[in-house]
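Section 3.1 - Work completed
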Amino acid sequence: AAAVQVYNEQVDDLLHLEHQAGSGRDMQIRNNGVIPGLTWVTCKRPETMLEAFARARTNLVYAETKLNKASSRSHAIFQIRLSRRERSKAPAGAARQV
């Protein structure tokens, strides 16, 4: 999973470990929307993905406007990359559970 915030054509990495210190800010978008150096968190369990989502939300920047006190005037994007693995086959002669 990865997360970015886009504001005024600036892209910030919301999952960068040093985000609060200013790292992962103003990242460049390359060919086909790829962001080199973007932090990707491997999520093997749903809880890990929810933790990444919560961490990204805490790093969002909000700017108050006259019309909306919780407006950010930005876009937050949480990306999930799914991969599929082949299941390992049981060795020949092994008992099969039904």
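Second construct:
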Amino acid sequence: KEHIGLDVRRLREMEEALYRFFTARVGLRFLTEHHILSDDRRDLNEDLRVQQSCLENVPIESSGDTGDDNTDYLGCIQKNCDPVREARRVADQ
């Protein structure tokens, strides 16, 4: 029984360590991507945004009335993001 308890404890420790690692990785990626996309070169930013999209074959839509995708973002943060529309984009994938 002691062996089983040790395994559960070790698995919990490993799970917590992996959670911290991947949380830090996602945070670092977000900060790096936001820094790069905050540059004033809008044409390059849009290309990078499309390349970094995890949704293949699902177009990135503009949320504004201007039709200009670049004005819909502050770095990698989409202004006026619609969570329902984003959930549908993911479901369409």
